[in-house]
Amino acid sequence: MVCRNTSRMMHQREFMGIPPTGKQLTLSGISIYRIVDGKIREEWNLADTQGLMRQLGLVP
Questions:
Q1: Has residue 2 got a pLDDT over 90?
Q2: Which CATH number is 27's domain given?
Q3: In a domain, 11, yes or no
């Protein structure tokens, strides 16, 4: 099973050494689940951290 997700947040606290900017941020990602007998047995996640860093002005 695959799940695409989007989180919206406001940068109000220090994050990875970056002081709060007050900016609205959006983080998109995808989760992949391996299900056996109706139970999640494995999970893989991938988040667009480069997009997040771009929104914070850390990368062009």
A1: yes
A2: 3.10.450.50
A3: yes
